[in-house]
Design a protein that fits this description.
327 residues; alpha/beta
Length: 327
């Protein structure tokens, strides 16, 4: 008699990471997706839930059945939009939502894989809207980590870098920072993007994050004692510079026979009239060359970490996807 497949409870299944992670999980497990509005295709079961409500907004019977069925929780749901009307929303959803997920884990006595962010380790200076928003986001994710670490359940905390869209994803991912940046450069930002060419940004292909999280779920299910703790899922030494991004955009523009704006990058001014928008976000998202690369734990569960050649190939592929014309 075939044993039933383990049940994974997944939050954030319609988000940037969850959309790519859901198919990988459903290929091996039964997946119950906790959804707020949209229902993802492919989940075994969908339950309408609310991270801002105690008991996740579920009635007593729903919550009891969920506790009885779940074998591991993968918590991806988070507020990531920058400059919301109320910055406290980051804490309400990212931190308090995690507290409620950890209560579910405690009631069910199951392990958790928590998707955090590498942003928790990045210092953001400035008092403008973009800087305050990024600080509020990173602090909410740090508090979520702290709340998860207090649990008696095994918790694996994943700190991913920024992400390239999945190779098999459909549509241009314009709402993610790297891809909005690529499209802006391809359109020709007036005056160029105010960022130094040697500043770097850590961007990882989505496929590597999905593979790592899938392996981590399996490790948690099997009680692997090395699974709990912090996992840096980043490009690490294969980080990309602003010059790499500009070159990829220039190459595509020339290939398409389109004019190349001059310059694509420009020296950052001491003061800027705008305190938000892509120019400011790029200044906050790119790090100076004196800043060491982020830690990288890919080899803990995958055969190898990202190479620079593979990072540049992913960059080229994603820049092409973001072309504001039929490339």
């Amino acid at each position: 008699m075939t044993s039933p497949r383990p049940t994974v409870v997944l939050t954030g299944s319609t988000g940037v990471i969850g959309t790519s992670l859901l198919p990988a999980l459903t290929s091996r497990y039964d997946v119950t997706a906790l959804v707020h509005r949209r229902r993802p295709p492919g989940a075994t079961v969908c339950l309408r839930a609310d991270l801002t409500q105690e008991g996740l907004g579920l009635d007593h019977r729903q919550y009891h059945d969920l506790v009885a069925a779940v074998d591991v929780i993968v918590h991806c749901a988070a507020l990531t939009a920058f400059a919301p009307s109320d910055l406290t929303a980051f804490d309400d959803i990212n931190a308090e939502g995690t507290r409620r997920i950890m209560q579910l884990a405690s009631d069910a006595q199951v392990p958790v894989v928590l998707l955090s962010s590498a942003a928790v380790a990045v210092e953001v200076t400035g008092d403008d809207l973009a800087a305050r928003s990024m600080r509020a986001y990173s602090r909410s994710k740090r508090r979520a980590e702290d709340l998860a670490a207090q649990s008696r359940q095994p918790v694996a905390i994943v700190r991913p870098a920024l992400l390239f869209a999945g190779r098999h994803a459909t549509g241009a991912p314009r709402h993610q920072f790297p891809h909005a940046l690529f499209e802006l450069l391809l359109r020709g930002r007036r005056g160029g993007l105010p960022i130094n060419p040697d500043h770097w940004c850590d961007i990882l292909p989505m496929e590597m994050l999905v593979a790592y999280v899938s392996a981590l779920v399996d490790a948690q299910l099997h009680g692997d004692a090395t699974a709990p703790g912090i996992h840096w899922v980043t490009a690490g030494p294969a980080r990309l510079t602003a010059a790499d991004v500009a070159q990829a955009c220039t190459d595509l523009l020339r290939e398409a026979g389109r004019p190349v704006p001059t310059p694509l990058l420009s020296p950052p001014a001491a003061r800027h009239r705008r305190t938000h928008g892509m120019g400011r976000m790029a200044q906050l998202g790119f790090q100076p060359p004196t800043q060491p690369p982020l830690p990288c734990d890919l080899r803990r569960l995958l055969p190898a970490q990202l190479t620079r050649t593979a990072a540049l190939e992913a960059l080229t592929h994603n820049v092409r996807r973001c072309a504001p014309w039929d490339a």
